[in-house]
UniProtKB/TrEMBL annotation:
<feature type="domain" description="LCCL">
    <location>
        <begin position="27"/>
        <end position="120"/>
    </location>
</feature>
<keyword id="KW-0964">Secreted</keyword>
<comment type="function">
    <text>Plays a role in the control of cell shape and motility in the trabecular meshwork.</text>
</comment>
<feature type="domain" description="VWFA">
    <location>
        <begin position="170"/>
        <end position="355"/>
    </location>
</feature>
<keyword id="KW-0325">Glycoprotein</keyword>
<dbReference type="GO" id="GO:0005576">
    <property type="term" value="C:extracellular region"/>
</dbReference>
<dbReference type="InterPro" id="IPR004043">
    <property type="entry name" value="LCCL"/>
</dbReference>
<dbReference type="InterPro" id="IPR002035">
    <property type="entry name" value="VWF_A"/>
</dbReference>
<dbReference type="Pfam" id="PF00092">
    <property type="entry name" value="VWA"/>
</dbReference>
<feature type="signal peptide">
    <location>
        <begin position="1"/>
        <end position="22"/>
    </location>
</feature>
<keyword id="KW-1015">Disulfide bond</keyword>
<keyword id="KW-0732">Signal</keyword>
<dbReference type="InterPro" id="IPR036609">
    <property type="entry name" value="LCCL_sf"/>
</dbReference>
<dbReference type="GO" id="GO:0007605">
    <property type="term" value="P:sensory perception of sound"/>
</dbReference>
<protein>
    <recommendedName>
        <fullName>Cochlin</fullName>
    </recommendedName>
</protein>
<dbReference type="InterPro" id="IPR036465">
    <property type="entry name" value="vWFA_dom_sf"/>
</dbReference>
<feature type="domain" description="VWFA">
    <location>
        <begin position="372"/>
        <end position="540"/>
    </location>
</feature>
């Protein structure tokens, strides 16, 4: 069966409901089991589902938030709002999103869907439903009662719609859902999170918040862009279900660092990435490797420890230094202690202030999003057209490893023979795709080899006005230079430029080491064949990141 046939089952009846824009229906409208969210035209509508919607096949996509092609009644059963006997439920239309997650609940298996154009959520109906006969009809019955009072539109203060612009963070909240915390304290934890996000003032131009539960295996509950208004976000937190299991906090940090902050999952380019991890007592697994990955990925990890182990419990703690190993930096700022879940209110404001302290987020800058890389490319006659293309492919592989953007890493290129030509500067291209295209458009010059003069030219023209500590020059050459390379390379290094030399074929090892920074062995590369250049890509990327970390 094709995916399309699964996504769009025949419902037997297409229900189209129109009403005055912006109003909310207070009368339950009978529907059939196959009625989908996309069939409903109102932003908020109470529907009346028939019994036994679990008997036939109903298609449901997502968890908590459902793709609009889902069966409304099937989703209501999956959500636990309705049972086999049917009943009324309110359907709230939402924007489309990515990554609708599957789950099994109340006899309904929801399915995965990578993206859809519209969504809906479900809440309990507050109106009195109509009685449902054995034959469901598709239009509302006339009401003989008094005219219904016009409902007020839900009011959300304008200041919240945009969000707190002074806190433009992407925040992943990793909460404890283990058997150690228990249902009662889990609810107190949800209360703390709700107060915290209200204090943060989420919004399209303010902080975005997503949430992951730590248990035996981590579970992403919602992504950064699923809820960008406070009302929606608070409801999603309220509906979180307790999981139980072990406190595998390290596994949850690793999962979040690896998958959560991708642009496909809603992370915003150039916005600081924050992970706040809540732990009741102590974790069951190791945090060190996961926290290291988070730091290398530019994620600022805060750890909030609630009810720390008592002296007689320390023997059961796997790693007594788990707090210092987990955080972005062990300077006291990224660690926070709360003595009890029953006294968290006073901690909401200081926690919000920490999460929004832009200047204190030391882990935001990494080698991947902060370096300036200059490529100095030998275009002499001995290289040849086909080998020159291999050089460009090699340099493209290096550039592709970094987060090139107007607020991230930068790449520029100079080609040289006896002359020099600035192919493109560090600020000429503001994203990775433009930079990769610019590299491939470089035309082979052909001529002699004056590497020393080319280093001086690049120092003065490519890296001008750039601060030290994050500037890197990769020199690629296949032969001996006709001029001195040592003094120009020393001058470049004195200006804060770290030099890597990559030699091919007839390039003298002595010249390569004269150009490269200290220690020479880790900044000098040589291969007999141009086809061997690709093997150096991971080593060069790791070297640049190592140097960046040591210098910063």
């Amino acid at each position: 069966m094709s995916q399309l046939s699964v996504l769009l089952p025949l419902t037997g009846l297409l229900l189209l409901i129109s009403s005055t824009s912006g109003s909310e229906s207070s009368v339950a409208l009978p529907v059939i089991c196959g009625t989908r969210g996309t069939d409903l035209m109102e932003d908020s509508l109470v529907v009346l589902c028939p019994p036994d919607c679990t008997q036939g096949r109903v298609s449901v996509f997502g968890t908590s938030v459902y793709a609009s092609i889902s069966s409304v009644c099937g989703a209501a059963v999956h959500r636990g709002l309705l049972g086999p006997s049917g009943g009324s439920v309110r359907v709230n239309r939402l924007h489309g999103q990515q990554n609708y997650m599957s789950s099994f609940a109340h006899g309904i298996q929801s399915q995965v869907l990578s993206r859809w154009t519209a969504s809906f959520s479900l809440t309990e109906a507050v109106s009195v439903p109509l009685e449902l006969t054995s034959e469901t009809i598709a239009t509302a019955l006339p009401v003989a009662a008094k005219p219904a009072k016009k409902l007020k539109k839900p009011s959300v203060k304008k200041v919240l719609k945009g969000g707190n612009k002074d806190c433009p963070m992407d925040i992943a909240m990793v909460i404890d859902s283990s058997k150690n915390i228990g249902q009662r304290r889990f609810n107190l934890q949800k209360n703390l999170i709700s107060k915290l996000v209200a204090m943060l003032k989420v919004g399209p131009t303010g902080p975005h918040v997503g949430l992951i539960q730590a248990s035996d295996s981590p579970r992403t509950e919602f992504l950064l862009t699923n809820y960008t208004q406070p009302k929606e976000l608070l409801f999603a937190i309220k509906e979180l279900a307790y999981l139980g299991g072990d406190t595998n906090t390290g596994k949850a940090i690793m999962h979040t660092a690896e998958t959560f902050f991708s642009q496909e999952n809603g992370a915003r380019r150039g916005h600081p990435r924050v992970m706040m991890v809540l732990v009741d007592g102590w974790p069951s697994d190791d945090l060190e490797q996961a926290a290291m990955l988070a730091r290398e990925s530019g994620i600022n990890v805060f750890l909030v420890s609630v009810a720390r182990p008592a002296a007689d419990e320390l023997a059961m703690v796997r790693d007594k230094d788990f707090m210092t190993k987990a955080v972005c930096k062990d300077n006291g700022f990224f660690s926070y202690l709360i003595t009890s879940w029953f006294s968290t209110t006073k901690h909401v404001k200081p926690l919000a202030q920490k999460l929004c302290s832009l200047d204190s987020l030391l882990c935001s800058k990494t080698c991947y999003n902060s370096v300036n890389i200059g490529f100095l490319i030998d275009g002499s006659s001995s290289v040849g057209h086909s080998n020159f293309q291999l050089v460009l492919d090699f340099l493209g592989g290096i550039a592709r490893s970094f987060e090139i953007s107007d607020v991230g890493a930068r790449v520029g290129a100079v080609q040289f023979t006896y002359d020099q030509r600035l192919e493109f500067g560090l600020f000429d291209h503001s994203d990775k795709e433009e930079t990769m295209n610019a590299l491939q458009r470089i035309h082979y010059m052909s001529g002699g080899t004056a590497t020393g003069a080319a280093i001086s030219y690049t120092t003065q023209n490519l890296f001008r006005r750039m601060g030290p500590g994050r500037n890197f020059l990769i020199v690629v050459t296949d032969g001996q230079s006709y001029d001195d390379v040592r003094l120009p390379a020393i001058a470049a290094q004195k200006q804060g430029i770290t030099v890597y030399s990559v030699g091919v074929a007839w390039a003298p090892l002595e010249d390569l080491k004269s150009m490269s920074s200290e220690p020479k062995d880790s900044h000098t590369f040589f291969t007999r064949e141009f086809t061997g250049l690709a093997e150096f890509i991971p080593q060069l990327v790791r070297g640049i990141c190592r140097d960046f970390t040591e210098n910063n």
